[in-house]
Amino acid sequence: MHMRLCKTADLNAPRGVRGVKLSLKTMSMNRGMSGRPHPPQSIGALAWQLSNRWKAAVERAVAPLGLSHGDHVVLAALLDARRRRHIPCQREVAEAVGLSAIFASKLLRGLEREGLVDRVPDAADSRAMRLGLSAEGLRVAEAARAAVKPLERQLAAPLGTPGGAKARSLAETLRALMAGLER
């Protein structure tokens, strides 16, 4: 069996959750929506499906915290920077998570409005701002990480042990595919 991603309006979403509800519907492994067998899918189609399903699973895990998947990714990057004792600028956050500067800015403004992110002037560049987690942002980022970490272990279980040969091979392949898109 595999799952099909369904998108519906979510009128009961908690505050801060973007108003779309993603759910997974069970489908037969070898049959499309029509019930007829379908040909093998392209790598691009499989990557898109995996990305959407993974994102939907993470969205469900962080929704009780009022976060979207994008919010979680940005907060996780700021949490990692904090642990390295680094205070990144917006460009660094965007690059770290693979987002456009415009989309990262939109997410960061929303997180700042929610009181989760603090912006402070850059001492070396008066035009730039440095970003960090507020006390509430730190609490929420750690809670999101605690919710997502076991989910990621579960989702990656078919690869065997974390850091094992299959997981390392897939990670290398994904990095190579992403590098090809950056050319």
List the helices and strands and how they pair.
Blueprint: E1 2-9, E2 20-27, H1 43-62, H2 69-83, H3 90-97, H4 101-113, E3 117-121, E4 129-133, H5 135-155, H6 165-181
Antiparallel strand pairs: 1-2, 3-4
Architecture overview:
By secondary structure, the protein is an alpha+beta fold. Among the domains are: 1-39, no CATH class; 69-143, Winged helix-like DNA-binding domain superfamily/Winged helix DNA-binding domain (Arc Repressor Mutant, subunit A), CATH 1.10.10.10. Helices cover 51% and strands 14% of the residues. The chain has 6 helices and 4 strands, in the order ββααααββαα. The chain has helices at residues 43-62, 69-83, 90-97, 101-113, 135-155, 165-181; strands spanning 2-9, 20-27, 117-121, 129-133. The strands form 2 sheets. It has a two-stranded antiparallel ribbon. A hairpin with a 7-residue loop joins β3 (117-121) and β4 (129-133). The longest helix has 21 residues, at 135-155. The radius of gyration is 19 Å and the shape is globular. The two termini are 37 Å apart. 16% of the residues are buried. Mean pLDDT is 84; it is low at 1-12 and 17-30.
What is the CATH third-level topology name of the domain at 69-143?
A: Arc Repressor Mutant, subunit A
CA-CA gap between termini: 37 Å
CATH superfamily of the domain at 69-143: Winged helix-like DNA-binding domain superfamily/Winged helix DNA-binding domain
β-strand number: 4
- Measured by DSSP, the beta-strand proportion falls in 5-15%
Count of separate DSSP helical elements: 6
Arrangement of strands in the largest sheet: 1-2
Tell me the overall shape: globular
**If classified by CATH, what would the architecture of the domain at 69-143 be?**
Orthogonal Bundle
Radius of gyration: 19 Å
What is the arithmetic mean of pLDDT? 84
